[in-house]
Amino acid sequence: MLGALAVSAGVRFALLLGLGLLIGYSLERFGFGFAGPWRRMILKREPDGLIAQLVAIGLASVLIQPLIASSDGLLGAIAPVSLTMIMGAAVFGFAMQIVLGCGSGTLVNAGTGNLVAMMTLPLFCVGSFVGSLLVPAAIASTPHLPVSLPEIFGVPGALAVTGAGLIGVGVLAAWRGQGTLWNRRLLTAAVILAALAGLHVLVAGQPWGVVYGLGLWAAKGAVWLGWNPELSAFWSHPINAAALSQSILTDTTSLTSLGLVGGAALAAWRVSTSQALVPGLAPWIFVIVAVAGFMLGVSSRLAFGCNVGGLFSGIASGSLHGWAWLVAGFIGSVYGVQAREWLWKQASVVHA
Amino acid sequence: MTRRLGIVITLSCLLGLIVVEWVGGNPPDPFQAPDPMAWGSVEGASGAICTFAPGAE
User: Fold this and answer.
1) Which sign does the torsion angle of CA A260, A264, A265, A267 carry?
2) A240–B52 CB contact, under 8 Å
3) ipTM for this model
């Protein structure tokens, strides 16, 4: 499969699909995620998953920031901070707890045959497309200030600020949490994920992301239905117009997202026959799930990335918006966890 | 029904997406392939990234 892609599209694209496969396999195999650990921190005060995330981001920043500074052709995940960006991150944090799947988590869960994620993903794509149409209006209506720490402090200074921030969050999580801080399985996954994120920058020239590709898939569907991308300030931009006119097999985020699903499927294939496809929940919950999937898509576009492109790659690249994403996303998750508890309880009662 | 069916459905849908786009007249062109790695290449990042914010530069 990778060889065929290398021949038909190019070696870089085969490498990106391969990286996606490895990321998806690793996330599923090691049980590493973003929404789940935040839920455990909020509900049970268990900080080990959150701390593993911080370790992964910190290691990735040490790899990514010097790499990006070393070559003119490389691009960091730097995005503006704004009111709509912060609101988007908060809504994403809320919605990802409803479906218990973030950007990467929804792809991985769909790859494992999780019906909730399978219902979420299509609407996530549509929402991402709709969100992309709203981005220019959001930028025009409120101040959007891109802040790149490496540009302000230089790479060593930005790494020091990033490291100090991550340690600060880790200390806060340890202080508020109960139980073990260091989970060997999750820390192993964190090291692997950081290494793969560094390789992603080497190959793609830009950090790992998810949402762009999902919106691109829906945009291609909209074009097929007769939509004119020239009417959109977002999609008529040369970079996006090029992505729209070319194969998804040459789009960076599409390839890694396809790989994530495939890698998770490989990891889950053997045990998949021992798990039921349809959960014991009332059917109406899938309407809620679909709405939450749409919210995930719209909000992640306005937030300039999901937990991957905005939070993980944003902080690792030295973008201030990644830190704003972390705070707003976590606040949204606090409410999202409560909403999920109530909704799932109702769905279980009705079903019973 | 087990999750194995869910995996098959998900992978089939994504494969269908690729096939439909390919036969719909948008196959990749190997003769326009960039260098294998962006690092050290004049063909760097595509810029098609989640943090893309037109007009906020």
Assistant:
1) positive
2) yes
3) 0.96
